[in-house]
Amino acid sequence: MDRTLPAIITGLVVIGLFALMWRSWRARRRRDSGLTAGYPAPTDEAAATVTVDCFYVATTPRDQPLERLSISGLGFRARARIAVTDAGLWLSLRGEAPVYIAADAIELLTPATVAIDRVVEKDGLLRLGWRLADSGLPVDSYFRINDIVERRSLTAAIRSVSSVLNNSSATTDHDESEA
Questions:
Q1: Are residues 68 and 125 in the same domain?
Q2: What φ, ψ does residue 27 adopt, rounded to 5°?
Q3: What confidence score (pLDDT) does residue 178 get?
Q4: Which residues cross the membrane (predicted)?
Q5: What is the helix (H) or strand (E) element at residue 57, kind and residue range?
Q6: Tens digit of pLDDT for each residue in 54-93?
Q7: What is the pLDDT of residues 147-175, one digit of tens each?
């Protein structure tokens, strides 16, 4: 009997915390409801030059790695496949419709260490900076690619299709093993 009151209080606190998390996620979904992931798919079916299986971490507003955007199709962590074509790249997250990002929307490609709910070794994430189609909002998508060879080939392929990255020196990608 002497444990009943603490158990009830603990249960109410846990229920209250879950209610607050649910309310917060609903507010985030409402805030980001006008944002659309990706671009219209190209009419010509270009073959992928590079395809990599990886772990999708998050999409955040540009330079705000701890502020997740709740964009339909990009709201949750998932296993993913990135396929780079001559016109852009496809993000296929498990359980979601594929998202197409046009090559001219890609503005940034750098290593990262921190994104919302993920901290890894130095430069263990790949940060892809791009602009949303409808709003033009600059965003960053973060990926975890464990295979160094796949990461290098993906980085080279993305750089080759993006005119912005081809003309910029701010697209470094390196690993601790290369230092």
A1: yes
A2: -65, -40
A3: 42
A4: 6-25
A5: strand 50-61
A6: 999 999 999 999 988 888 888 889 999 999 999 899 999 9
A7: 999 999 999 999 999 877 766 654 444 44
β-strand 138-144 against 125-131: which pairing, if any? antiparallel
Instruction: Please provide the distance, in angstroms rounded to a whole number, between the alpha carbons at the two ends of the chain.
Output: 63
36 occurs within a structural domain? no
Neighbours of 51 (CB within 10 A): 18
Q: Do 77 and 129 belong together in one domain? A: yes
Q: Which pTM was predicted?
A: 0.79
Residue 107 sits in the same domain as residue 169? yes
Give the helix/strand (H/E) hosting 125: strand 125-131
Average pLDDT, the chain: 86
| CA 49/CA 70 separation, integer angstroms | 30
* Residue 155 counted as domain residue: yes
Q: Are residues 81 and 115 in the same domain?
A: yes
Residue 61 CA to residue 23 CA, distance in Å, equals 21
Enclosing domain of residue 16: 1-31
Does the residue 153 lie in any domain? Answer: yes
Q: Where are the alpha helices (DSSP H) in the chain?
A: 4-31, 148-161, 163-166
